[in-house]
């Protein structure tokens, strides 16, 4: 059932700085099978469906490397708090989450992400069955890193033994990893200090290495955290991680605002990647991560929206612009983080971080068809001369007109196709309002 995207003004392949002009693309069995002149493609293929690409730029679907999808339920209700105060409130509410609330939260998050052009999200969550169900219903490509936590320092955490948590993970892993044509993948997320003990982190790293899975934690997000870790273990979080054999190339560390130069060199030595979450770091008043230090040491960097309780949107276009502008301002260097480099961090570089660069992250024949179209017929994209710049400095998720994931068209002309949005959002609103009322959140 070949699908033709016809007469696309620009295709930003992200393989190199290639911006193809006036080309078409054929997608079949979830893959891009040919890119070329329209007439040639029409001759080569019996086309089943056509999408008009005129007036659009096509680029790979965006990859969001840090998220807590169920937090959509708490959007706007945790504003004005610093990390610890914020954690106290969110943990208190998390404790009250039931399966339905988790499912609704994740479904809102994934729907919002897809409409903003995100086709793959790394999610750090508990309640795996509900999160996966939401991913399947929305069609997003998901790497669910299951939360593993076992310390009393964080209020409201369910304390289970290391063995029990790993055993529970194995059950979900066996059932879901690489399920749904590879659109659902599993990973492990011992959240990091102070939520997870060194024993739990070490065991998780062992399982991740054995099964070649993504390992995901927070690091150096906040000054107080850094101080508490030093007080308890006499070392920085990264030093502690190195000691217990936690550092590896499959590890993604979110935030890294307070990493020291030595920490960054250590991460570089082990090939660890950092997920920069500028909105979340600013909203919780944690600060700004030193991207210049990361880049100097050749540490790989991706971007994350983080959850809707600390952002509060799920739009990587916004994060791209913010990441780029913040660093220019802080470093007084207008040439720092140029647009193409920022775009790489949410496409091909992010795919490399996940070890999926042969499958996704750029638009070329043989790769999975995860791609988006942006409607360029807008005043803020005029003149069209510098498309790459426009994608970082002028675009927002609202400009995404079409979203294709694994060859499936999930958004067309701005409309989500897999289910009817309005009744879902109405039901979600009423459930969440009840939940917040019952838990006395005003
Ligand atoms: Zn997080």
- Unreliable stretches, pLDDT < 50, 5 or more residues? none
Tally of DSSP β-strands: 17
**Helix-residue proportion:** 25-40%
Q: What name is given to the CATH topology of the largest domain? A: TIM Barrel
CATH architectural category of the largest domain: Alpha-Beta Barrel
Helix count? 17
Please tell me what the overall shape is. globular
Number of separate domains: 2
Radius of gyration: 21 Å
Q: Bound small molecules, which ones?
A: zinc ion
User: How large is the share of residues in beta strands?
Assistant: 15-25%
Rounded to the nearest angstrom, the distance between the terminal CA atoms is 51 Å
CATH homologous superfamily label of the largest domain = Metal-dependent hydrolases
How does the major sheet shape up?
9 strands, mixed
Determine and state the CATH class of the largest domain: Alpha Beta
Structural class: alpha/beta
Short description:
This protein has helices at residues 38-44, 83-94, 99-115, 128-138, 162-176, 179-182, 198-211, 223-233, 237-243, 261-270, 278-283, 291-296, 316-331, 339-345, 348-353, 387-393, 421-438, and strands at residues 3-12, 19-28, 31-36, 49-52, 56-60, 62-67, 118-125, 141-148, 184-190, 214-219, 251-255, 273-276, 301-303, 371-375, 400-405, 408-412, 415-416. It is of the alpha/beta class and 442 residues long. The N and C termini lie far apart (51 Å).
């Amino acid at each position: 059932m070949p699908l033709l995207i016809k007469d696309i003004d620009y295709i930003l392949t992200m393989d190199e700085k290639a911006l193809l002009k006036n080309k078409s693309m054929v997608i079949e069995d979830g893959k891009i099978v040919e890119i070329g002149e329209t007439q040639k493609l029409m001759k080569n293929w019996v086309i089943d469906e056509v999408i008009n690409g005129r007036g659009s730029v096509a680029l790979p679907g965006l990859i969001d490397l840090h998220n807590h999808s169920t937090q959509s339920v708490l959007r706007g209700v945790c504003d004005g708090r610093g990390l610890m105060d914020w954690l106290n409130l969110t943990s208190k509410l998390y404790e009250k989450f039931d399966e339905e609330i988790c499912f609704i939260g994740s479904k809102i998050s994934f729907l919002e992400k897809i409409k903003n052009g995100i086709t793959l999200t790394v999610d750090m969550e508990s309640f795996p069955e509900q999160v996966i169900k939401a991913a399947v219903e929305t069609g997003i490509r998901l790497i669910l890193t299951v939360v593993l936590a076992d310390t009393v320092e964080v209020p409201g955490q369910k304390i289970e033994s290391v063995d029990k948590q790993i055993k529970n993970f194995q059950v979900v892993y066996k059932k879901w990893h690489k399920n749904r044509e590879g659109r659902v993948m599993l990973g492990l997320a011992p959240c990091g200090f102070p939520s997870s003990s060194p024993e739990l982190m070490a065991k998780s790293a062992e399982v991740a290495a054995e099964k070649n899975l993504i390992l995901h934690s927070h690091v150096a997000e906040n000054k107080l955290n850094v101080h508490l870790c030093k007080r308890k273990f006499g070392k920085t979080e990264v030093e502690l991680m190195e000691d217990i054999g936690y550092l590896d190339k499959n590890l993604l560390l979110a935030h890294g605002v307070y990493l020291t130069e030595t920490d960054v060199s250590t991460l570089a030595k082990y090939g660890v990647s950092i997920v920069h979450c500028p909105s979340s770091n600013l909203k919780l008043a944690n600060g700004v991560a030193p991207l210049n230090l990361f880049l100097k040491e050749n540490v790989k960097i991706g971007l994350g929206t983080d959850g809707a309780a600390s952002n509060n949107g799920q739009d990587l276009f916004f994060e791209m612009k913010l990441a780029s502008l913040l660093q220019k301002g802080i470093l007084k260097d207008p040439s720092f983080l140029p647009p193409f480099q920022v775009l790489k961090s949410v496409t091909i570089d992010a795919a490399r971080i996940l070890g999926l660069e042969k499958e996704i992250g750029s638009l070329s024949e043989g790769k999975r068809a995860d791609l988006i179209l942006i409607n360029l017929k807008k005043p803020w994209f005029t003149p069209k001369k510098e498309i790459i710049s426009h994608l970082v400095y002028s675009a927002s998720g609202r400009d995404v007109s079409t979203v294709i994931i694994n060859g499936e068209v999930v958004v067309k002309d701005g409309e989500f196709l897999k289910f009817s949005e309005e009744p879902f959002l109405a039901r979600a609103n009423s459930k969440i309002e009840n939940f917040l009322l019952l838990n006395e959140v005003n």
